[in-house]
Every structure is written in structure tokens, then in C-alpha cells.
Design goal:
By secondary structure, this protein is an all-alpha fold. Helix content is 79%, strand content 0%.
């Protein structure tokens, strides 16, 4: 029984860790990740009580009930503007689905202690990934659609694909091993594609034109960095870093912009036929800035480096 239970829940945590590792810019917050797992547990408990009380069909009604309950915390996060990027939606959604599966698998083991190892593996991997994938995809769709339509309409459009996938998983009668393999591969591919698209959208959202660079640099110097896109991005992940590390990250962005604007200015002068007439003092100041950037990079840590990637292109 204990072995079956462990087989039923360990893959869930491993899958969440895999998704977190794909979050290149580290935008998903551990605190919200933990709350998402707890909300998944709560949604499973509510679904179990309702199903037992009303006696709904597990195959046809449960997908609507379960996907709706799992979607509630995602809707709350988006309404409160705690989610901005697709990677966050995918990871938090998968965490909710993972929490749901942990309690669901626990209930299955308690009600069926004689469950064989293969069934436990199927539930721990295949069904769990289905729950995680459906909620993660719903979250990503909602992030994209809520920007273009009213929230109620966006929720309706975003949740339908998850319900259809869940329903298909329940009613399509194929060999369990094939279903398990197909579910894992399908959602791994979808998750990788969504993460890649999400990173691309972050890059596109950031405006790397020289006019935006000048505006951002001026905003930093005036203490109004949060009004820029770069500032909004960094403020969104601020709580993940110690104050001194976050300060170093801001300094890195400022130094990078200063050097970038200076380089672009020299290139324009060279194209216009002007020679590089910098004095020794100016060259020394430039070299000091480069050395300071190198020093800060050694101080901030790996996670901060990944977070700054979209800003330091």
C-alpha cells in the first residue's frame, strides 16, 4: 500500500520540478507555487464531497466540475494581477493540478488498498499529468484571452479545451500503457512549446529600441524605474531576491544601458565619419564600468542572471 501511494504522488512533485526548471527567467514565485498546490488539494476535496453527495457521473460530469474548481485560483491570481507571463500560468496551473492529484491518489489508495502497482503508476503519472496539463493550459489561454475580452468570456473560452481533453482522457478506451505514454509525451511537448512561446513574448514585450533604452535609463536615475516595462518586469520578481541582490540587479541594468547607449552613439558617429576622440579619462571610466558589470555578475547568482536575460540583450 505504501509503495503504491509513493508511486502515486512522487511523479507529481518530479513533474512540477521539471516545469520549474524550464522557467528560464524564474518568474514563478515559490510562495504562490505552494499556495497553488494547497488550492489543488482543496479543489479535489470539494469535488470529492460534491461527487459523493450528488452522485454525478465520473466520466462525463466530473471533467466540468473538476476543471472549474481547479480554475478558480488561476482566475483569482489573474484578477489580482499576480500572473503576468505564460510560464507562471503554466507552472501555477500544473501545481494546482498536482495538488488535486495528490489528494485524489490518496483517496484512491485509501478506498482501494489492494490496488496493483501498474494502476498506481498509471494514476501517479498519467492521470496526474492530465490534471496538471489541463489546468496549466487553461491558465495560459486565460492569460492570452483576458487581455482581449471580458473576463467571463475569456474564462469560458479558456476552460473549454481543458474540459474536452479531460473528457477525452476519461472516455477514450485504449490500452492503459499507451494512454500513459501518450499523455506524458503530449503534455511534455505542449509545455515545452508554451514555455518557448512565453519567453519569446517576454522578449517582444521588452522594447529594446535606443529611445526606450534612453527613457529607461532616465527613469532609473530619476527613481521612476517601475514606470518602465523593464521595471515592471523586475518588480514582478522582486520578492524572490534579497534586497542587496535586487539593488545589484538594478545597478547592472543601469550600467548595461549606459554602455549600450554609449556604444550606439559611437557607432552613429563613426558612420557619420567622426573619429573616436575619447580621452584617457573617458576610456578609464568606460573600463571601470565594464569591470563593475563583471563584478556584479559574480555577486548576484545564477537565478538573477537568468531573470536579467531579457533586459541585457
Amino acid at each position: 500500500m505504501i509503495a503504491n501511494y509513493l508511486v502515486g504522488i512522487i511523479p507529481i512533485f518530479l513533474y512540477i520540478l521539471v516545469l520549474k526548471s524550464l522557467d528560464s527567467f524564474a518568474v514563478a514565485k515559490p510562495s504562490i507555487l505552494a499556495k497553488s498546490i494547497l488550492c489543488g488539494l482543496a479543489s479535489c476535496l470539494v469535488a470529492f464531497i460534491l461527487a459523493r453527495t450528488i452522485g454525478w457521473s465520473a466520466d462525463y460530469i466530473s471533467p466540468i466540475l473538476e476543471e472549474s474548481l481547479k480554475a478558480l485560483f488561476i482566475i483569482y491570481l489573474i484578477n489580482r494581477r499576480r500572473i503576468r507571463f505564460l510560464a507562471e500560468g503554466l507552472i501555477y496551473g500544473a501545481a494546482i493540478g498536482g495538488g488535486f492529484s495528490i489528494l485524489e491518489n490518496t483517496i484512491y489508495v485509501l478506498y482501494c488498498p489492494t490496488m496493483d502497482f501498474g494502476t498506481a503508476m498509471f494514476r501517479g503519472v498519467g492521470v496526474a499529468i492530465m490534471h496538471m496539463g489541463c489546468t496549466g493550459i487553461m491558465a495560459c489561454l486565460l492569460i492570452l484571452t483576458c487581455q482581449k475580452m471580458k473576463m467571463l468570456n475569456a474564462v469560458a473560452m479558456s476552460i473549454v479545451p481543458s474540459i474536452i481533453i479531460h473528457l477525452a482522457h476519461n472516455i477514450i478506451d485504449i490500452e492503459p500503457s499507451y494512454r500513459l505514454f501518450g499523455t506524458v509525451i503530449l503534455f511534455l511537448i505542449l509545455f515545452y512549446v508554451i514555455m518557448t512561446i512565453g519567453e519569446s513574448l517576454i522578449y517582444k514585450w521588452m522594447d529594446h529600441s535606443i529611445s526606450e533604452d534612453i527613457y529607461t535609463l532616465a527613469a532609473i536615475r530619476q527613481g521612476n524605474f517601475s514606470a518602465t516595462k523593464s521595471g515592471q518586469y523586475l518588480m514582478h520578481v522582486k520578492e524572490q531576491f534579497q534586497p542587496e541582490v535586487f539593488f545589484d540587479m538594478i545597478c547592472l541594468v543601469q550600467l548595461h544601458l549606459e554602455l549600450k547607449i554609449e556604444k550606439q552613439s559611437r557607432m552613429l558617429k563613426a558612420q557619420a565619419g567622426f573619429k573616436d576622440d575619447r580621452t584617457e579619462e573617458e576610456l578609464a571610466a568606460h573600463n571601470a564600468q565594464v569591470a563593475e558589470i563583471d563584478h556584479l555578475f559574480t555577486q548576484i547568482g545564477k537565478t538573477a542572471k537568468w531573470v536579467l536575460r531579457p533586459l541585457l540583450r
